[in-house]
Write a structure and sequence with these properties.
The complex is a heterodimer of chains A (about 110) and B (about 110). With about 110 residues, chain A is mostly beta strands. Chain A contains no helices and ten strands. By secondary structure, chain B is mainly β. Chain B is about 0% helix and about 50% strand. Classes of the chains: A mainly beta (about 110), B mainly beta (about 110).
Chain lengths: ~110, ~110
């Protein structure tokens, strides 16, 4: 498997709290995708980070990538109820075949009022 | 308007029956993919295609066939459905170049009795 076991997570927090989801992978990559999946919907890309960026922000989202430890994280600041979803990290299956993605098992985030 | 459309959205089949899941994309992407999603496993790649007439095996191809008759259409075929193939299936499309963002359909829930 491409993925570490800690990639399957279930997180429950209150509105306004910060949360971080972690992802570790076994095969070297220079890019990590983060997808969000709402209940009953297909996954959708929310942030993509490359190795030369180390950190990338989009609104309340912040992604990091550490190629030396082969890990990535996604943080949400001041979580809202609408952030409730499953979050996946994904990496290219093989270098050079950028569109063939391998997905982690996902982190189910529940944000309560 | 949805760019990746799957049909049927829900299907109940009998063991040993033939099932065809269809996918249509209007993104004009070369690459298309079929994943299945099961609790505890995340998204796993079944088959993919680099263009009309091509199909490639993914990580879990056994028991599945794929067909790509045109740029827009990609089908997943279960010739002899089994209860272990009960799952939610997602089709996705992606560019041949770049970092490989995938665009997913809404999913097809298959139950094999």
């Amino acid at each position: 498997s491409q993925w570490g076991e800690e990639n399957l997570q279930a997180l429950s927090i209150q509105e306004g709290e910060d949360v971080t989801m972690n992802c570790s992978y076994k095969t070297y990559t220079t890019v990590v995708h983060w997808y969000r999946q709402d209940s009953g919907r297909g996954p959708a890309l929310i942030i993509l980070i490359r190795s030369n960026e180390r950190e990338k922000r989009s609104g309340r989202l912040r992604a990091t990538l550490d190629t030396s430890s082969q890990s990535s994280s996604l943080s949400i600041t001041a979580a809202q109820c609408e952030d409730t979803a499953v979050y996946f990290c994904a990496t290219p299956h093989q270098q050079g075949t950028g569109s063939k993605l391998s997905f982690g098992k996902g982190a189910k985030l529940t944000v309560s009022p | 308007e949805a760019a990746v459309t799957q049909s049927p959205r829900n299907k109940v089949a009998v063991t040993g029956g033939k099932v065809t899941l269809s996918c249509n994309q209007t993104n004009n992407h070369n690459n298309m993919y079929w994943y299945r999603q099961d609790t505890g496993h995340g998204l796993r790649l079944i088959h993919y295609s680099y263009g009309a007439g091509s199909t490639e095996k993914g990580d879990i191809p056994d028991g599945y066939k794929a067909s790509r008759p045109s740029q827009e259409n990609f089908s997943l075929i279960l010739e002899l459905a089994t209860p272990s193939q009960t799952s939610v299936y997602f089709c996705a499309s992606g560019d041949a170049w770049g970092p490989g963002q995938l665009y997913f359909g809404e999913g097809s829930k298959l139950t094999v009795l």
